[in-house]
Amino acid sequence: MPRMPKQRGMNALVETRNMSIRIGGHTALKGVDFSISKGEIVTIIGPNGSGKTTLLRAIIGALKPSSGEVKRQANLSIGYVPQKLHIDPTLPLSVERFLGLPKRRSAETATAALAKAGVQGIQKRPMQRLSGGQFQRVMLARALLEEPQLLILDEPTTGLDQPGAAQFYHQIEEIRRDLGCAVLMVSHELHVVMSASDRVICLNGHVCCHGTPEVVASAPEYRELFGRGTHGALALYRHVHDHDHSECDHEGVDHAG
Fold it and tell me: Which of 74, 96, 162, 251 has the most crowded Cβ, counting Cβ within 10 A?
């Protein structure tokens, strides 16, 4: 069994212990130990069907474990950006009105959230006329309205080109710095993940390996899943930021088995 990732302190915002989830007779996740603490950016990677979204839904509380447990800090505030959101194209819905659903928000509050998400001045624009990047940032602004201690993003840059994805993840780093929140992301963009994460968790129905981006990229399990050439992404997208890693897991990667 994989050991739980080391944390910066004992006060994890969310922690799963030996958690398994069965959906329709299928075991989606088995024996998952996971935790995330304040200020961390943690990214979950894995092939299609590996249980990434299932893990997020369990953390949010939308799915109950079949065994094991999920522990959340009391009164934990979570902001969530889903992988997809379909809006009826015939529905006249402005950005400002969208941000006010289901709970009405003041214009000042909506404006501030849009500014934090990097899309100022589009309050009156119809949601249907937004570009892909603008739509995702409005979704991010909606999550920020919750003043989250934990911000969860499920493949938030799907459909964006590489520069657009990199800009979005840079915005996430700024939000983490300004709000002090933890960020948990699912992504398939390995090159960007390696530049934007403190820790990476490789999932394939269970935790295959985890650690800093550098050590995960060196793990045999990672290379088996994603190909040996993916290690070169680190040379182009080295993660640089200004907070303290002294309590992070630098001793190496933990493996399943």
Answer: 96
Domain 14-77+149-251 = CATH 3.40.50.300: yes
The alpha carbon of 201 is separated from its chain's Cα centroid by a whole number of angstroms, namely 11
Report how far residue 123's alpha carbon sits from residue 99's, in angstroms, rounded to the nearest whole number.
9
Give the pLDDT of residue 62.
95
Q: In what order do the strands lie in the sheet with 199-203?
A: 78-81, 150-154, 182-186, 41-45, 199-203, 207-211, 254-255
Q: What is the pTM of this model?
A: 0.83
**Separation between Cα atoms, residue 238 and residue 129, nearest integer Å:** 35
Summarised one tens digit per residue, pLDDT across range 22-40 is: 999 999 999 999 999 999 9
Which of 34-48, 132-146, 228-242 comes out lowest in average pLDDT? Answer: 228-242
Residues 6+ away with beta carbon under 8 Å from 217: 194, 230, 231, 233, 234
pLDDT in tens, 202-245: 999 999 999 999 889 889 998 888 875 555 444 333 433 343 43
- Residue 110's contacts (CB-CB under 8 Å, 6 or more residues apart) are 95, 96, 99, 100, 123, 141, 145
Residues 6 or more apart in contact with residue 2 via CB below 8 angstroms: 31, 33, 206, 207, 208, 209, 210, 254, 255, 256, 257
Q: Regarding beta strands 199-203 and 67-72, do their DSSP bridges make them parallel or antiparallel, or are they unpaired?
A: unpaired
